[in-house]
Amino acid sequence: MATSHEESPETQTPLIDDVVDSAVDYKGHPIRRSTSSGWRSASFIIGVEVGERFAYYGISANLITFLTGQLGQSTVTAAENVNIWSGTAQLLPLLGAFVADSFLGRYRTIIVASLLYILGLGLLTVSALLTSSELQIVLFFFSLYLVAVAQGGHKPCVQAFGADQFDGQDPEECKAKNSFFNWWYFCMNAGILLTFSVLTYIQDNLSWGLGFGIPCVVMVLALIIFVSGTRTYRYSIQGEEESPFVRIGKVFVAALRNRRTSPSAIASEEESRGTLPDQSSEQFKFLNKALLAPDNLKKNGKVCTIAEVEEAKAVLRLFPIWATCLPYAIVCAQSSTFFTKQGATMDRTIVPGFDIPAASLQSFICLAIMMIIPIYDRIFVPMARAFTREPFGITMLQRIGTGMFFSIISMVVAALVEMKRLQTAKDYDLVDLPSATIPMSIWWLVPQYFLYGLADVFTIVGLQEFFYDQVPNELRSVGLALYLSIFGVGSFLSSFLIFIIEEATSLGGHTSWFSDNLNLAHLDYFYWLLAALSAVGLLVYLYFAKSYIYNRARTI
After folding, report:
1. Phi (first) and psi of residue 351, to 5 degrees
2. Predicted TM-score (pTM) of this structure
3. 61: which residues sit within 8 A by CB, 6+ positions away?
């Protein structure tokens, strides 16, 4: 009996340590690391993302071709419509994340969003089968924006739910979570690559109805895969405490209400509560005014705590980084619009009788990503870790800035290639023949696409990890939605920039930079402008990144 009592603590303790904090299984029971595999669950979720990205890019990759061809829109109008739709699709995740984090939870939100996705893709297929009419246009744009709404619920929740399968408080699982973001992006681009290499050919050469119908079927399969993993997932526990939106909003309201409070009163309140937790309290000190409250509120205990003030500061610190990444997002908007229209004017012959679709050249972005991510994860990170002593080789902000630099190089290369394309058109007297093929191989565009992919490996993955890691636990879907909103606002800014330049350069009968006849247009000027804006944006980004203080409580 004595032996039995002595062994009992030794057998009990590992079981207690093995329990994953703040997570349960599908029945609501505590979940153990030894019986739940982070990668096993994440593999189902990654499979869903591959299907969803195949479906989304099955629409967006060649959308400008459908608008200028089937619907007869001009290049400028089509580019603006693509940017507005893309911007809306990237901003709606803010709403979807709010619904998920405050009401439905990530799992249920993914289910509802998937069903909306399938409905939208089905209606889109029907619209593509209709003959040109007012009904076709109305149904097409209705279903297009229904897909945007579905994507708004699906996108932030799936990635956050996947990252939730790894416990950030366990050193080994924390490292696995860092790799998860890399391999997530790798697999996602495998699905996108399939879209660019197969689906764009079907849309250009066989049928738009089939080209939109296949993504609908794939999305059905993706939903089945997701539901199949239900028993394996770790589900985050929704606490009984106040909503994080309410907590953070309360801090800003209280600070605004106490805006006339003297610094001495704030210092006295800070002293009475003890030293604030860490160095981050020195930033945004105006929010410390939220620690004060009228006497009637103090009696009821309705005063902002130090933890709530620090939580609000953590969110506020994200916005300078968010804003300075917008030039990068504007550059990102070009690959599916003007890059594609550029390629359509060039020699696309692979073998006699077979021309590569211009939109499929975007596959080189995916190929670059799929080539570089394994090198980054397995070679670069361990080597960099030996020099920097950083757990992940380089910091998240260093990774983001590196990608921004490569995006500038991509725009410079794009401008130089466009200058050569225009010169070739002049040399062969093709300037006034917009439908003529320029005797210049489409492979000249590959370097700008490859550099674009290289930039994505650093910036996109870095942004995903940064906005997931640096927000309060309950707001991680919103964090990823904030990352996506960078590209939503970037698309709108791109559309606005195109509109302003179109109006300015076409005054007095002059040829616009974005003329339907690209041989008379000046996309090269536009690319040089984007390179300059990106360079300025990078300098401002470096200023804010240098002073950023990481929320180390959530970074092992």
Report:
1. -135, 155
2. 0.74
3. 192, 195, 196, 199, 200, 336, 359, 362
Q: 32 falls in which pLDDT band (50, 70, 90)?
A: confident
CB-based burial label for 452 (10 Å; 0-12, 13-18, 19+): buried
**Exposed/middle/buried for 494, CB within 10 Å: 0-12, 13-18, 19+?**
buried
Higher-scoring residue by pLDDT: 62, 25: 62
**pLDDT tens-digit readout, 238-255:** 655 566 677 788 888 888
Average pLDDT, integer, range 258-265: 72
pLDDT at 494 over 90: no
Q: What is the mean pLDDT of residues 108-133?
A: 89
Q: How confident is the prediction for the chain on average, in pLDDT? A: 81
Chain centroid, CA 399 distance in Å: 15
Q: Give 3-state DSSP helix, strand, coil % of the chain, rounded to 5.
A: 75, 5, 20
Cα 137 to Cα 85, 133, 212, 215, distances in angstroms:
15, 7, 15, 20
In which region does residue 294 sit, left (phi positive, over 0), alpha (psi from -120 to 50) or beta (all else)?
beta
Q: Which pLDDT does position 95 carry in this prediction?
A: 86
In this structure, the dihedral spanned by the alpha carbons of residues 356, 359, 361 and 366, taken in order and rounded to 10 degrees, is -130
Q: Are 408 and 448 in contact (CB under 8 A)?
A: no
Helix (H, G, I), strand (E, B) or coil at 207: coil
Q: Which two tokens stand for residue 51?
A: 């299907």
CA angle 473, 478, 481 (to 5 degrees): 140
Alpha carbons 308 and 301: distance in angstroms, whole number: 14
